[in-house]
Amino acid sequence: MRLLILPVFFLSGALAIRAADSPGIIKGSDQFEFVYRVKLPEIKGEARVWIPLAKTDSFQTVTEEELNIPMKWEKVHDRDYANDICVLHPQSADSGKTIELRYRVERREKAAYSASSADAARYLRPEKLVPVNETFRTL
User: Which domain holds residue 24?
Assistant: First the structure.
């Protein structure tokens, strides 16, 4: 059976809607609404969908306004990067359904910081889905 994997961060229309009307760099703090929205394609076989879940940290306060997930799902914690992920296993009956996660976010400005060499090595190492060849090394 073929497994259809839908990485939502590529398929979803992630919308950041500014609270202020004027464009530009915001100093201090900024507030906005953030929406993940995805319409499931036709599902003919087994499928999985991963959606990253926003969370509060020292530089942002996230308020969950609405989670509209019209099917069974589970929250999974990524041990490597400490992220929470919504994991769904949609069935063919879920084809065409829309999933929407809506957050209110307040971001606080942070200064640049230097990463340790261990962090740099971890985040810049090759991954199975990231090409590493001479072309990319020269970039």
Answer: 3-111
